[in-house]
Amino acid sequence: MTDHQAIELPTAEDIRSLVRPDHVHRRAYADPSVFQLEQDKIFGKLWIYVAHESQLKKPGDFVRTRLAEHEVLVTRGEDGKINVLKNRCPHRGARLCMADKGTSRLFSCPYHAWVFRPDGSLSSVPHKKSYPESFDLADPRNHMQRIEKIEIYRGFVFATLNENPEPLLKHLGEMTEVIDNLVDRAPDGEIEMADSVFSLEYRGNWKLHMENAADIFHPSFVHSSSVMPARRAPANASIIDQDQTREMLMANGFGFDEWEGIQLNGTPSGHTYMKNFYNRGVLSPEQQDPVVVRYRAALVARLGEEKAAHVLGMNRFNNIIYPNLIINAQYQQMRVATPLAVDRTLVRIFCFRLKGAPDEMFHRAVRFQTTLGSPASMIFSDDVEMLERCQQGLSKEEGPWVDFSRGLDSDRRAESGAVSGAASEMPMRVQFQAWVNYLTAEAA
Amino acid sequence: MLDYQTQRQIELFLFEEARLLDDGDFQGWLKLYEPQGIYWMPSQPGQTDPLNVASIIYEDHGILSIRVQRLLEERALVLTPMPRTTHLVSNIVARTAEDGGFAVEAAFVCVVHQDVKQKLYSGRHAYELVRNGDTFRIKLKRVSLMNCDGVHTPMAIPL
Fold first, then answer.
1. Of the candidates A120, A128, A146, B18, which lies 20 to 30 Å from A73 by C-alpha distance?
2. Are the beta carbons of A222 and B77 separated by less than 8 Å?
3. Which branch of life, at top level (chain B) (predicted)?
4. What is the pLDDT of residues A284-298, one digit of tens each?
5. Chain B: residue nearest A235 by CA?
6. A332: distance to nearest CA of chain B, Å?
7. In chain B, whose CA is at the least distance from the CA of A363?
8. Residue A301 belongs to what H/E stretch?
9. What are phi and psi of B101, to 5 degrees?
10. pLDDT per residue over A262-284, tens digit each?
């Protein structure tokens, strides 16, 4: 991590000069000082997803993650409340917890044995009498540093370093609908994060991944090496997944009709989503196989016919909650892209179990997670290759402008923001407009 | 413990598999699998459940054949330039399985070289093999990658 003081941060004027209506300067992806400003003004000021409550069922449960440039522990305290704590001993600064998740009623620093409770308060130090009389266990300076601002929306825990943030609900805006939709799909009204997560690091800027997730123009080209063999392969040759993998691979092979048929949406906060994507096979919304029939019956029993039909009818793909959270409710999937450096990004890929749904529904979600998110994915690996090639090209001085003009003449305005056809680069323009707004915002 | 000749045949079969992968003969490699054979690379140490826990790869012959076609497809972006690999298999221990086939364990190291990058993979293989004339077929190959639950970069060539 770059030392904070060592870099002169870009001014608001600098930032505005990097984004034109239809072009973005390569410095947005490659300049370490721009990256540092993003850490301060985006990842340090906006609500950032840190954990799901189902990972923190009982006191002492914790997960380790990142918030801006800090490694943090998200814990469930003895009082049942959720805490977000910097993973650092306040004594000598040592990293405290070396596990990604677990349960611990006490966090003990192995160096001089300061022991902390899950809420970050200092429980004990050995040989207390050798500390000065003024040393106080209750002094917050001796506690793990707390992130004070935490808000939870239907089990999704967000935190921010911003001391005066807008309410989470205001930031999420209409994106609450996709979180609602994911939770409402559970016949028991609750979702649970699966144990398995994929972590993948690529050599490229974090925004490249968020743009790619909103880019429905690239799949026909980037994924042709999996589309073509999937098309040639016989149907139902696999005995383990009811052809789900083959259908998912084939879904990336589309042309004019699909480009016209998929609608893209963008909001002023920088959130984007698209409508309709996987429309065939076991993942199709019209699927009537015995698993789905049983699942629908369970959902109808809880919600009633009309509400269940409404919940199941929502078919929005790659819902991107700015800056770095992607949710696919109908496939129970979630992704988080965490910037590590201007040219390094960690992508973590999760999936959820719908409580009360048939086990097979979860098996399909797990299959989805592997097919689209595994390091050996026949889809994602080609995406990553392109993200890295973009970074390689953008790291050079030549040809400084990136073109995002496609669709500029045909985008429409709707009540909630911008709307376009799938061939448009509107989502990237929306993301960059929000990016400029966040980076140039005056301190509150 | 197996008789020396069978143990040796199994070792040679594993070496042949490694050679096919290193030669880029992925279709030849796929032919080593039973028609319902499975290639499994778990994402968690000690993972026993391929349905409720996501795997890095959990594919049967039907899906593997798509994967192999993609490796041979000229536009697979992650394969340009085509990686070169050295698959090493060692510490091979085979025993007779209850179904009359063979349960084989081995250690592996694989070096993948592509463009300016070199990557190193290691771990353990567990095979279920069945007799097929004077050679064998793979019913199940389980690849326990040492860092299966770690942070990865894209993987393209089977281990």
1. A128
2. yes
3. Bacteria
4. 777 788 999 999 999
5. B62
6. 13
7. B51
8. helix A290-303
9. -85, -155
10. 889 999 999 999 987 666 677 77
ipTM over 0.90 threshold: yes
Query: For residue A7, what pLDDT is reported?
Result: 79
The region, left, alpha or beta by phi > 0 then psi within -120 to 50, assigned to residue B27 is alpha
**Residue B74 falls inside a structural domain:** yes
Residue A442 has what pLDDT?
83
Chains A, B: CB contacts within 8 A come to 131
The DSSP annotation for A336-391 comes to: EEEEEETTEEEEEEEEEEETTS-HHHHHHHHHHHHHHHSTT-TTHHHHHHHHHHHH
Q: What is the phi-psi region of residue A399: left when phi exceeds 0, alpha when psi lies from -120 to 50, beta otherwise?
A: left
- Cα torsion through A178, A181, A183, A187, rounded to 10: -170
Chain-chain contact of A382 with B153 (C-beta, under 8 angstroms):
no
Q: At residue A444, does pLDDT exceed 60?
A: no
pLDDT value of residue A89: 98
C-alpha dist (Å) from residue A304 to A296, A310, A356, A358 = 10, 10, 15, 18
Query: Are A117 and A13 in contact, with CB atoms under 8 Å apart?
Result: no
Q: Are A17 and A27 in contact (CB under 8 A)?
A: no
A233 touches chain B (CB under 8 A): yes
Residue B103 β-bridge partners: B95, B128
Report the CATH number that the domain containing residue B44 is assigned in CATH.
Answer: 3.10.450.50
A196 to B62: CB separation less than 8 angstroms, yes or no: no
Looking at the domain assignment, is residue B115 inside a domain? yes
Q: Which of these ranges, A228-242, A428-442, B107-121, has the smallest mean pLDDT?
A: A228-242
- A-chain residues within 8 Å CB-CB of B61? 237-238
Q: Which of A196, A239, A370 sits opposite B36 (nearest CB)?
A: A239
Checking if the pLDDT of A259 tops 80, the result is: no
Parent domain of B58? 4-145
Q: Which DSSP letter does residue A144 get? A: P
Domain count, chain B: 1
